[in-house]
Design a protein that fits this description.
Radius of gyration: 18 Å
Mean pLDDT: 90
Shape: globular
Number of strands: 12
Number of helices: 7
Strand order of the largest sheet: 2-3-1-9-8-10
């Protein structure tokens, strides 16, 4: 499972060109040697990049960034949704069109976002993943990470609200953006010296954070990001104590 990687990267705000996004994704090319893709909306100031390791659907139908059937969402996705056949069956039972373009779990996620909404779909999805999703209707970027944090995702702004919001699977992708400032975060450095690790949400670079497991972030151009949990291990544990006979996978 550790080898099931893709690489995602991108930017909201500032100068958006295919060359900038490709430079960011090439830094994580080792995560996805099979394919690369870029999606831009320069008017909205958003660019998504993807490096693909094809696992579930190796055809062109699995190419990313991928757009939802409604046209509202565009996703760059890294990981695997284990229960995507169940989600697909639920979508079909609720009347979703069944002429699927391919067999990728990414397509199932997008269909869920169209039908159920983003948070409700993430609450249903079991797997290991990190994703970047552009909502054309709300002009909002959404980042999300799996429940246990198996897939990494970094993000941040290093200036004011007018500076670009950067994100990527690895710090080296973010570091390829021309506005990146490699200033070391002193608190993070102290923690690294003490524990030989930098605990989330910090990263070694000032202004760049690591998204916590089980959370989703929403950000629009010129605004502060808003982060909320879509899953809590503590809540699950409390529910099990309260109802030990519960067999719910949640």
């Amino acid at each position: 499972a550790a080898g099931r990687m893709c690489g995602i990267a991108g930017v909201l705000g500032g100068e958006i060109t295919p060359q900038i996004i490709l430079r960011m994704t090439k830094a994580v090319a080792h995560r996805g040697p099979d394919d690369e893709g870029v999606w831009l909306d320069t008017e909205a100031g958003i660019g998504l990049g993807h490096r693909r390791l094809a696992i579930i659907d190796v055809s062109a139908a699995g190419h990313q960034p991928m757009q939802s059937v409604s046209g509202r969402f565009v996703i760059s996705f890294n990981g695997e949704i284990y229960n995507y056949p169940d989600l697909r069956a639920d979508l079909e039972a609720q009347g979703h069109r069944v002429d699927w373009r391919g067999h990728s779990d990414t397509e199932i996620l997008l269909a869920g976002f169209d039908l159920w909404g983003v948070k409700a779909t993430l609450e249903r999805a079991m797997g290991m993943f990190a994703l970047a999703l552009w909502d054309k209707q709300d002009r909002t970027l959404i980042l999300a990470r799996d429940r246990l944090g198996e897939k990494p995702l970094y993000y941040g702004r290093q200036g004011g609200l007018s500076s670009p919001f950067l994100f990527g699977s690895e710090l080296k992708a973010i570091a390829q953006h021309p506005d990146f400032n490699p200033e070391i975060d002193r608190e993070a450095l102290d923690l690294y010296v003490r524990y030989l690790a930098v605990p989330a949400p910090l990263s070694i670079y000032r202004g760049i954070s690591k998204l916590l497991p089980g959370t989703m972030l929403r950000v629009s151009a010129g605004s502060e990001p808003r982060i909320e949990a879509y899953w809590s291990g503590a809540d699950v544990a409390r529910a099990r104590v309260a109802d030990p006979l519960s067999l719910s996978p949640e």
